[in-house]
Amino acid sequence: MATKKEGILFPWHHGTGAQPSYVEELDGLKNWVEKTRDSGSKAFREFTPFDWAALFLPCLRWLRTYRVKEWLLWDLLAGVSVGFMIIPQSMSYANIAGVPSVYGLYGAFLPLAVYALLGSSKQLGVGPVAVTSLLIGNGIRAMVPGSENIDNPNNPGEFAGVQDIYNHKVIQVAFLVACMYTGVGALRLGFIVRFLSHSVITGFTSGAAVIIGMSQVRYILGYKVPRMDSLHEIIEVLVAGRAGFKWKECVMGLAMLGFLIGLKVISKRVKKLHWLAALGPIMACAISIIAVVAGKLDRRGIKVVEKIPQGLPSPTIGWWAPVNNLGPMLGLSAVVMLVDLLESTSIARALARKNGYELSYNQEIVGLGIANFAGAMFNSYTTTGSFSRSAVNNSSGAKTQLAGFITSMVVMFVLLFLTKVFELLPYNTMAAIIIAGVMGLVEFDTAIYLMKTHLRDFAVWLVAFLATLFLGIELGLAAAIGLALLIVIFESAFPHTAVLGRVDRTTVYRNVEQYPGAEMVPGVLVVRLDAPVYFANVQWMEDKLVAYEAEALRFARANGIDRVEYIILDLTPVPHMDSMGAHFLEELHQSYKARGIQLILTNPSPRVVRLMERSGLIAKIGRDWIFVRVHDAVVNCQRSLMQMEAGGSLATPTWQPMGMVSPVFQSEGGAEPNGAAAGSRGGGPVAPGAAAGASLGL
Amino acid sequence: MATKKEGILFPWHHGTGAQPSYVEELDGLKNWVEKTRDSGSKAFREFTPFDWAALFLPCLRWLRTYRVKEWLLWDLLAGVSVGFMIIPQSMSYANIAGVPSVYGLYGAFLPLAVYALLGSSKQLGVGPVAVTSLLIGNGIRAMVPGSENIDNPNNPGEFAGVQDIYNHKVIQVAFLVACMYTGVGALRLGFIVRFLSHSVITGFTSGAAVIIGMSQVRYILGYKVPRMDSLHEIIEVLVAGRAGFKWKECVMGLAMLGFLIGLKVISKRVKKLHWLAALGPIMACAISIIAVVAGKLDRRGIKVVEKIPQGLPSPTIGWWAPVNNLGPMLGLSAVVMLVDLLESTSIARALARKNGYELSYNQEIVGLGIANFAGAMFNSYTTTGSFSRSAVNNSSGAKTQLAGFITSMVVMFVLLFLTKVFELLPYNTMAAIIIAGVMGLVEFDTAIYLMKTHLRDFAVWLVAFLATLFLGIELGLAAAIGLALLIVIFESAFPHTAVLGRVDRTTVYRNVEQYPGAEMVPGVLVVRLDAPVYFANVQWMEDKLVAYEAEALRFARANGIDRVEYIILDLTPVPHMDSMGAHFLEELHQSYKARGIQLILTNPSPRVVRLMERSGLIAKIGRDWIFVRVHDAVVNCQRSLMQMEAGGSLATPTWQPMGMVSPVFQSEGGAEPNGAAAGSRGGGPVAPGAAAGASLGL
């Protein structure tokens, strides 16, 4: 029995002296860099010229293996479908952002092409999106005085100067967002969005969707009322402006909205017609433009786009500097980047999982960053992966990034030859397209699911939703982000800890709260720390230990022992510690020592042992008091306690560890994982009279 | 053997049907409220009238048990010592904040008295502090145009109007900080400062201390140069202004600085004279005031305070509204509150631990909040616990909050009778007092300790320190907070997970990375999740499981099995989950099922089981696939695998759990913690040929 011994010992522990400190950390860093470098399909040194080229132009990979016969038709179909969808959508979103409609078309052209060359998601539908457009519109409007008076950004009339400043600022935001994107991708900081929980995000986007939808109602009613950014203000303004009602706009807008919703319902009900919903917007555009042309409606008070410059975008690099209001501009850009990054990566992730390929997050983020650079260079505002268009792209069967490239070619065709046609597109139709589009973003079903499963998450959803509705989109987002951070800090600050007891005379120790039958030894407290011990949680662990000690003392006294002699910390679930963690253990050791309590550690991980060695903690606690198993430590304590009782020398306990149950640093063969074997070799029963069946009852 | 059986089963699991969802969560909330209410020394219903009074006036507690003979002398001594210290300190700090010196004295009077009545720390030395003063000074100066030209806030001359606006704003910040403090205390959100690690804080305060010290050099050199807030700018300005050098100021300032540092050194070396350092500032004041009077120096170019209004502060409630620049004012107040809260609670905590009494955090925070309300009502800027004065208070032997009250009485005496004297206090002496004071805040020894123990923490210290030095205090603090948040998010986003293997034929399963001898069963993957499964970390867990599965598949193939049949998730260290966690497990189950892999869960905690029930997850996975122990699950999988091999029916595995090793929801007596017993009853060896000695080598 138990012939194999090396398994239970720390394999990485060779020398005994304190190790060099940051030299080793630097080694760790070097290893990490090497591992990361090697984590690709090939190590750098095996790189062929093709691999090097593909590193900078990732499209080479899918182009080389492109199966023309199998894929081309699907990519064409998907690309054209999304192209039909993105033309009216991007123009409408540009309107939300407060820039000329053509900015949306520019955003649907070059950034898409660049992303197709550099991005790693095969189905992501890049372009302008609704929520970001609203954020940019509200943010820039607050910075440009007078811009709230502009009625039609395509034809600002007397406000041409103000609109020009406004446009410059929007391009600058695109540039700043591009810089941030690229920085986050290059520094591998993509994880920063993970603190934003699903509840926070859906709450916020649901609220934003309602605001976006409600903000378009004025175009359907034909009013000329100021833009507002909270629900009650929008309703107030709509009610106050009811004198401006125009029945023609309203009939046309409602008809278009009904048409779009009808198509949506049909495509959901009839599986064969699922492509109808995607073609709805372009069909609505066609119908309403024909109506305008046939009925000469634009001269009878139907508001249309009016002006779209023909041709490809001209360079706007000269607009990047100087950036006025740098602080607010950086803030706005950071918020836009955060929302974009989150939306885009979560869609790309879902699509990659569905289609069974691996996504390279950092390439993905850098790809979006460079796409945004291209946009900022050529007159487009920020772009990211759109939920609705990615879904259509995927369901239409897009196989590679070629689909996105084809979409951008469709947009280019419109820019070159069809701008005159879209100049007749009525605002009411754009409004109907937006309203029909954002309806899918209001996720009440998520809210209901959350209410059923997790009340806290539902509360978070509700706060984010209501704050966005009634405090405006910026404060709503701030509240959502603050709440998410609060929860992450809360989770970090209050880690789980458990008092352990011995289960049924085995060598297994489990949480006494979960296993009320688990036996405690009076005078010995066993606590498991269930998290990395670091700055955010040491305070709570300290508080918890104080409380546990008080309980353990009560339990010991009830069993005839007048104090807690040993406190065992099981470090099994502690993957690492920081300097605060080491400091915490040191203070703990000192304060226990002062009160005659011995601190014992069990099963520390290699990283934790290294840190404890460097900070001198192991020397202070003593290698004799670090065990591999909780059971060894407990048996050892029990022996000491029994000896004390037998000798009557409670004041000077014998701190000698027993030969039979050896601490980890002493003998190689002693630490013994088999509980039955340890028991049969004289581990002895657990203080029979006192402890049997007793529990802390914490 | 093993006669006791109920211990291992879930004691809280009675019914089998799905439980009502939020009703139960509300019950949980109710329990929490009740537990919290009961967590005091007495439950509310046992409250005597005294307890009720003490709830609103906590000083009654210590007043009732006050031991006059033992404590009064110590409290008097400590109170007067701190009083002597706080008078010059508070006047100097007011200068840093850019308000008249008397504001500092006011801050050392009423807030102290109020804190003594309401606070829970017996030794905390409340009053104006250096770092906050700098934050307020820089923040308000940016908001009040023209204020950078004010040379002496006590006697602003032509800038009286600007100084008046400035003062109003400072009082408003005090009011906002008081509101935030009280809110944080009442809502029990004190934990929010825990994300600020020791490294971040000491890095920031060290940098701020250097900036504060350097900003005072101009008073010692006698220059009249603009205030700057980054090190290189300060040095630049000092070099550029060298023509304004005044040797009298310089000699006097350096003499005072030498005197103070000398006293500090003596008090450190000679233990009996430790009180000297505390008395240094007041002695320096006395000497320099005598020098000014004797030499009539103020008329010969020594800059003195000039004007301190006599008497108690007048009410300033009328200054609270209206608040202009609300956004930046709220931001500044939040930052000030955060720094104050952190400084104060960490000192109070350390003092309570040293003196062996319990601190009530929320009472503490509310106490500081109300003290700040009192300050904002009566002409004082924000106050909090000071590190240096708390240390002196403690070392002078303060026993109760009475010491703080006595300090405030000393300050009152000065306000009533000695203002004329302190009007002659030279700026160079105040500068020397500040420089000698902040020298202790520059913690290079912490930096060295961090460098030795934990490289990441050292890097954080360095970034916070250098950013504060060279980017200014606001951006430095922003960088520090950002960095700390980044680390907390990082820690939350990348939880530890481990592949488990069976150690030495026991029933113990451990991390195969730490125990390379631990045995894996080909076709069965056991993974332990070492953190609560919630929104911040599900993505990482998902990625990890994909990687583990690929490794497990390689290992299975190497052992003649062509796929992974079972994936066991050990949930022992998972205290709770949120809705994202449930969703993650559900998706996992579905994707595994689609690929013919069975998901098995072991040892979920009661909270996790409840959540899984509510979200319908248990019904989907099936109760048969949830076990108490990893070993039971593994043995069960092995049987199925062996049956498959015997029957040759790999395509249709027999999903029936074995009778011998029962899943937790089925039989009451089957789950069996004793490994030896399970083995003797036919658990069988672990796939001997294939698995012995093999390891994943992850």
TrEMBL record, chains A, B:
Note whether Electron transport occurs among the keywords.
Answer: no
Q: Where is the STAS domain?
A: 514-637
Keywords from UniProt, A to Z, are: Membrane, Transmembrane, Transmembrane helix
Q: How does it sit in the membrane?
A: Multi-pass membrane protein
InterPro entries per the record?
A: SLC26A/SulP_dom, SLC26A/SulP_fam, STAS_dom, STAS_dom_sf
Query: Membrane spanning segments where?
Result: 71-91, 97-118, 173-193, 199-221, 250-267, 273-294, 402-418, 430-451, 458-490
Region called Disordered, residue ranges = 665-698
One matching Pfam family is STAS
Main localization category: membrane
- Classify the source by domain of life: Eukaryota
The subcellular location is: Membrane
Low complexity bias (residue ranges): 668-679, 687-698
Q: What is this protein called?
A: STAS domain-containing protein
Q: Which organism is it from?
A: Tetradesmus obliquus (Green alga)
